[in-house]
């Protein structure tokens, strides 16, 4: 029997793979090798998440890279589309239809990335991952606006105020039996 999280992860990886391949059909004049390499690198983490279904690291890494790639896709499309438009739309080009299709698939891929990131976050939670502000090694940052300076609900131990169980007192009879240190 196939479980739903595995199917949704496979759908996310497969959809982004197909859309990335279709978006890079025209090749170098449009999005270039950087778009291809970025998406291949990100999809490798998706494949890693499929291979290791018990760990949370590949899913959270895939999700974070997917979120970063949203900004990267906007930059790629904003910078490279005017150049590709001047090549394919203003001149007579046999690749005009392929350019338009690739541009459309790149935009669809960009639109789907926030939704797939949400699905990946839910998969991360299903695998047992919990997000807290201090999870990524940022000291003093608590999850979602909690007070980081309060001692309530944290593992902070105030060394100025010792608990009664930790107070040690010297007893006079324990020092009588010991001889002083003579060098």
From TrEMBL:
One record GO biological process: angiotensin-activated signaling pathway
Recorded superkingdom: Eukaryota
InterPro entries (UniProt xref): AGTRAP
Bilayer-spanning residue ranges: 7-26, 32-52, 59-81, 101-121
GO CC annotation, single: plasma membrane
Annotated membrane topology: Multi-pass membrane protein
UniProt key word Secreted: no
Protein's name in the database: Type-1 angiotensin II receptor-associated protein
Organism: Capitella teleta
Record lineage: Eukaryota, Metazoa, Spiralia, Lophotrochozoa, Annelida
